[in-house]
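To fix ideas, we quote verbatim one protein's residues and fold tokens.
>
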Amino acid sequence: MLRALARAVIIGCALLSCGAPAQAQYPNRPVTIMVPLAAGSGMDVLVRLYADRLAQRLGKPVIVENRPGASLMLAANAVAQSPPDGHTLLVSTSSAMAINLTLFRQVTYDPDRDFIPISLYVKSPFILVVNPDVPAKTVPELIKYVKENQGKLSYSSPGAGVAQHLSMEYMKSQFGLDITHVPYRATPQSIQDIAAGHIALGWAEAGASLPLIKDGKLRALAVSSTTRLPLLPDVPPLAEAAPAPGFEAVSWHMLLAPAKTPSEIVDRLHDEMKRILAEPELKQKIETIGLIPFDTPSVEDLRAYRRAEQEKWGTLVKKLGLEGSQ
């Protein structure tokens, strides 16, 4: 009787131990990466590039789901409420994870409470462009020209509170400049009006401004990252050109998981993304769409970076009187 009972216990334990790895296996179904922008956007293109590689490494399909809306917050809300099992991930930016938290009256998620950062893999710099009639070919010359014409010049952005607007306000505060903001509803028109001479200058997205720069309709003076943009190797960072040590005003792409996702899953995704983004072929493709590949810090350093970005941009939003304005 006792022997039979012992045998049953041993068999039961063996069955449980065999079953445990199967239950703990990750992933055990397709992984979804939710993108807060429409299909065909630069972010979407990049996510699809690394999603294929991630699928090969994980051994399961990785599905890219576009969920645009609510100033990038619709996708964040959806993923924040997803099961914390690593099967639903979010790609987000500085707008949704740093700026919007102060800019909007109501944000229903908290980046620290609701998410775990996995990878910060690219930075998206802006290009300081001027109309060719502006008599400044360098950043120091532009600063001198603006100060000689304080309050007489204007700059454009795709809207109040967006990254391009805050980048120029950040620059203005650094150098004591007085330039009038002219907000537009969309990026193309805000840049085209600089080329047409209706607006003097602005910080512009690379994808939208590079054709006009190459055609000589815009003059590029600097980039907002601390490193050069591969597509414009002759254009210096503003930190170097001004000089303004430490100046950086970029958007960034971060992969996140819902809070309480097991650490072993987070660590695996972090390591896989680090390996994938180190591939020379993928780095080159990232550079061709006007982005800068970034070797992701650790998960804890990612938390610290996001908090620093929230403090940096939140302080500026408050200073501009835009807190809770949207």
Observations:
- The chain has 13 helices and eleven strands.
- Confidence is low (pLDDT under 50) at residues 1-23.
